[in-house]
Each structure stands twice: as C-alpha cells, then as structure tokens.
Amino acid sequence: MSARLSWSRLIRNLLHAPPAEAPPRPPDDLVAALAARMAAGARARLGRSLAIREIDAGSCGGCEAEIAALDAAPYELERFGLRFVDSPRQADLLLVSGPVTRNMAEALRRAHACMARPAWVVAVGDCAVDGGCFHTSPAVEGGVGTVLPVDLLIPGCPPAPEQVLEGLLALLRAGGAAPAPPPEKGQADASPEETGPVRPRTGDTESPGSQPG
C-alpha cells in the first residue's frame, strides 16, 4: 500500500502542469526581512553568521534547484552574512537532500563527524524526510534520519526557497533540538512554543572511521 501511495504521489507531481509563466517573484522586502531575522538569529545563537554545507544524497535535483535559488536573486543570502561553505569542517549545519543512497550513507556520517558543534542536520524535501517515492528501493537508506540525528524536517517536492528559510529560522529559535516540520508558509514569526515542543535530540553519536579531507 505504501509503495502504491508513493508512486501515486510521484505520478501526481509529474502530471502537474508546469506554469505557463515564470512563478511570481516574492516581494523583496519580505525576503529581506526574513533573511535579516535569520541572520540575527544566527548571531544570537552562534555569535556569528550561519555556515551551511549542502549535500546531495541521491536526489533528482529538484531540491538542489530550490536551494541554489537561495544564493541568487532575490534571496542572495550572502548579503545577510549567511553563506554556503565547501567543507563540513567549516559548517554549522548540514542541509541534506535526497533519499540517501547506500553509497552516500558513510559519506554523510563522516561529514557530520568532522563538524564542530552544534552540527545541526536539516533534511530538505520528501525524499530526505522519509525516502519519498524511493523508500522501498533496496538502493536507498530511506531518509536522512536513518543515518544521522535530524534536527529539522522540511517536507515538499520540492520545498520553495522561502520554506527553507522559514525552517532554518525556526531551527535557530528552537536551538536545534526538535525534529519537527517548519512552520506553515508565512508563519516565520511564530515562537518555538507555537511551532512544536522542543525535545532533546537523540542518536547524537559520531561514527568511527577516518574523517574526510
């Protein structure tokens, strides 16, 4: 039954008619306000800007396109001091997409093991949350949570860039302790209590083995 539901979801997404025109551009002032709140949250939580390492763990590329949009207009996160980095050693947060193929599982563990704390982990997209339509495949682990402790789940196929921003803002406010979905779109001002209870993160252990270079 679950496999049929997954395929029906995939078919529904594939058959959804693409927009005849470019999607509407989000208002610049709203994007600036959201990104500024996120930058302020990072400074309050970390004392500096937030460094993000994005990892594709076997996705179709849809979530990567939305994540890449965060580094371009109208978002341009670097103007607010939020940046993507090339090494997990420099990162505060792993932003992971894809159902986690078996070949990527150990790479994820090693990347997480060499991070300095808080070493937050965010699963972006349906595939990263629970494997999505690929969760029955023997070639995948079935989501990021099967390999690493996850601090935040951002569902969607794919989630919009502003949903990713709202989720990261909720994580900063909660302190990275609650593996729960982000607030609904437009509810980024909600307090941690309004977005769900904060629970201690479980499974926070480092895997043995050599660290990535």
Structural summary, described in words:
- The chain is of the alpha/beta class and 213 residues long.
- It has a single domain, classed as Rossmann fold, CATH 3.40.50.12280.
- The protein has helices spanning 2-15, 28-46, 62-69, 102-113, 126-130, 161-174, 192-195; strands spanning 51-56, 83-84, 93-97, 120-124, 152-154.
- A 5-stranded parallel β-sheet has the order 2-1-3-4-5.
- Strand 3, helix 4 (102-113) and strand 4 (120-124) form a beta-alpha-beta unit.
Record keyword descriptors for this entry.
single chain, 213 residues, five-stranded parallel β-sheet, 10% strand
Could you provide a short overview of the structure?
The chain has 213 residues and is an alpha/beta fold. It is built from seven helices and five strands.
Question: Which H/E pattern describes the elements?
Answer: HHEHEEHEHEHH
The main sheet comes to:
5 strands, parallel
Distance between the termini: 43 Å
**CA radius of gyration:** 17 Å
Compute the number of helices: 7
Summing up helix and strand content along with how strands pair, one would put the structural category as: alpha/beta
Unreliable residue stretches: 177-213
Strand order of the largest sheet: 2-1-3-4-5
What fraction of residues sit in β-strands? 5-15%
Per CATH, the architecture is: 3-Layer(aba) Sandwich
Organism: Roseomonas mucosa
GO molecular function: 4 iron, 4 sulfur cluster binding; metal ion binding
Domain NADH:ubiquinone oxidoreductase-like 20kDa subunit: 60-171
Family: Belongs to the complex I 20 kDa subunit family.
